[in-house]
Specification:
The complex is a heterodimer. By secondary structure, chain A is an all-alpha fold. In chain A, 79% of the residues lie in helices and 2% in strands. Chain A has one domain. Chain B folds into two domains: 217 residues, P-loop containing nucleotide triphosphate hydrolases (Rossmann fold); 79 residues, 2-Layer Sandwich (Alpha-Beta Plaits). In chain B, the strands form three sheets. Chain B has a six-stranded mixed sheet, sandwiched between helices. In chain B, strands 11-12-10-13 form a four-stranded antiparallel sheet. In chain B, strands 2-1-4 form a three-stranded antiparallel sheet, with helices on one face. The chains are: A mainly alpha, B alpha/beta. At the A-B interface, helix 1, helix 3 and helix 4 of A face helix 1, strand 5 and helix 3 of B.
Chain lengths: 240, 312
Amino acid sequence: MTHFRYEILRMLRNRMFYGITLGLPLVLFYAIASGQRHVMFDGTSFPLYFMTAMAVYGSMYAVVAPGARIARDRSGGWIRQLRVTPLRVRTDLAAKVAAAYLLALPTVVLLYLAGASIGVHLDAAQWLRMTGLIVAGLVPFVVMGFILGYLVPVDALAAALGGLVVLFALLGGVFGFQLATSGPLFDVLKGLPSYWLMQAGRTTVMGGGWPAEAWIVIALWTAVLIPAAALAYRRATSRV
Amino acid sequence: MTITADAGQGIVLSGLSKSYGPVRAVRGLDLTIAPGETVAMLGPNGAGKTTTIDMILGLTRPDKGTVSIFGSPPAVAVRDGWVGAMLQAGAPLDHLRVRELVKVMASYYPHPLDVAEVLRVTGASDFAGQWTTKLSGGQAQRVRFAAALVGDPDLLLLDEPTAGIDVEGRRDFWQAMRAVTQQGKTVVFATHYLEEADAYADRIVLIARGQIVADGPATEIKAQATARTIRATLPGVDARALGTLPGVRSAQRHGDSVVLSCTDADAALAALLGAFPATRDIEVTGGSLEAAFLELTTADADAGHQVMETAR
């Protein structure tokens, strides 16, 4: 518990990061969506689309953030120090995951409020369902954050995490266009967790949420990434 | 303290080996440390001290051999909180104050010591409110010591705890160390300062090239390590007569040359020249052990090589 508390404290004390994660998507949302509140996009309203986009974008940054803390602990040698205490790795990671989601949730909620303020109408069940889908869709990104945190040198980490988020956001359609809407490239895009994160808003409004395909994609990514993270952890903590 | 730890067995390393590619860092190391003992692992950089400590801690898996900590494998000993370690690297967690860092470390252990008390003993009270990233070298070292200590472990492993610390800081550290280890903790520390090993350890284990080259009480090791050898050409003198010269432990003759193993080479050399002015080709060298020792104790690499003195 103490460990979890201090994880959150460490995160909150990194004010610059916290401020940007929380503030930037919000600013972008108002700057771009407020002028286009009656525009239709991809079968729904542009504000709903862009609200989802910015919530996904911001929360992706939030959940890869533990990677940055891991990299700093690693570069200072503290990760080895932790390994020789009774603290279990899974307790440490659970605390980091929880802290990451705690940072992601305010981002999402702020975007909801911003969306509602310019006319996005969803009922309570829909808000909740959409939130649930975002939480689930972020899981592979949490793990990717860990992997980069274990492997990438600390001075390259900001670029690596930023690149990861931007790449997946771009391919997932966060920035207002899809690279493809049919054909083999589209099939590839549909295999990305960020594509389905982006669909959290639209599928909630249009139907009852994600199709089974989405859950399979998220589950597969998670199933592949977790053993990779375990390998990365072992590499990071044993001396070469 | 810990009830489950079978203190009777101490720390047992048997046949420990580890290679990194072609580099054989540790080669078949056997060592038994009794509970409550303070042992210095003394050796030059690259001797295998850190690798050995990493294997004791379970951070590095040995290629061969086993480690037993109070009868258990390292993973169990670590998990149950018997072990506290001060590793070489150590920029502590950022965005925390010193007190918070020690508190969070304490929370990992089943029976931690009082945080304020640990901060006081380790001399970290004065800067307990400071950010962990804003510490001087000496302060950071105290914090790492406090972090290793706060779990009240039975075994403390310190890997070059005073590296990069000034003389005064070193003395303070060892005073604090003394104060906390009086209650029967087993302490293993790695160092390349002979004087530290001499002053603070019950026993010195001298490690070179991944092997133990000497092991015993500090006084014994020191006597062995300070031995020097004088070689000279001196025909027709009885080795027994040479053996009685002051500062000479033993003397041997090989044809015209003599070899004196000395406890005090300066006195021996003076006496030799006084008694036998015909002595030629004098050469004073460190024994192999001493050569290793000089390497450890002097920062100047040249001084670590054989000391040559040729008369006239």
